[in-house]
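Support request from a user on the community tier.

User writes: "When I paste my C-alpha cells into the form, the page sometimes reloads and wipes my input. The last time it worked, I copied everything first. Here is what I submitted, just in case something in the input itself triggers the reload:"
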C-alpha cells in the first residue's frame, strides 16, 4: 500500500488495473504480444487500466475501454490499427492508436472476466458499431 501511494497511484486507479485484476490473463497476453512482434505495446499493457465497460446486452461481456479519452471511434484517429492476438481457443482484439491501447475485445467473452467487470462500479460506454 505504501509503495502504491508513493508511486502516485490512487486506490481507485489500482482497482482498475487489468494486470492486478487478471494476472494470469495479463501474463499470457503480454507474452503473446511479444511473440507477435508487438513488444512495443507491452509498456502500455503493463499499466493498462479499465475505464469503461462495453455497453452491450451480453451478461458476461469482457470488452472494455482502456482510456478515459473522449474517443468515440478509434478507427477515425490517426495511427489507428487493430492487433489480433490468438490465445487458448480465443482471440483478443486490441484497438491501438500508435502505441496506446484504446479498447480490448475478446472474440469469445470470458465469463470470469465479464463477471468481475460487471461487479465493478464502472461507467459504460458503447463500442463503435460497424
Ligand atoms: Zn459488449
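"...and here is what came back when it finally went through:"
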Amino acid at each position: 500500500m505504501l509503495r502504491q501511494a508513493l508511486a502516485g497511484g490512487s486506490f481507485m486507479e489500482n482497482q482498475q488495473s487489468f494486470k492486478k485484476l487478471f494476472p494470469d490473463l495479463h501474463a499470457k497476453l503480454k507474452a503473446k504480444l511479444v511473440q507477435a512482434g508487438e513488444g512495443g505495446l507491452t509498456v502500455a499493457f503493463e499499466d493498462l487500466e479499465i475505464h469503461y465497460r462495453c455497453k452491450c446486452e451480453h451478461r458476461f461481456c469482457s470488452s472494455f475501454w482502456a482510456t478515459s479519452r473522449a474517443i468515440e471511434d478509434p478507427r477515425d484517429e490517426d495511427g489507428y490499427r487493430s492487433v489480433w492476438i490468438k490465445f487458448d481457443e480465443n482471440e483478443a482484439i486490441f484497438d491501438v492508436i500508435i502505441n496506446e491501447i484504446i479498447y480490448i475485445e475478446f472474440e469469445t467473452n470470458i465469463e470470469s472476466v465479464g463477471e468481475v467487470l460487471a461487479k465493478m462500479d464502472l461507467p459504460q460506454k458503447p463500442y463503435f458499431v460497424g
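Agent notes: The reload is a front-end session timeout and is unrelated to the input. The pocket of zinc ion is lined by residues 54, 56, 58, 61, 63 (CB under 6 Å). Residues 4-11 have pLDDT under 50 and may be disordered. Escalated to web team.
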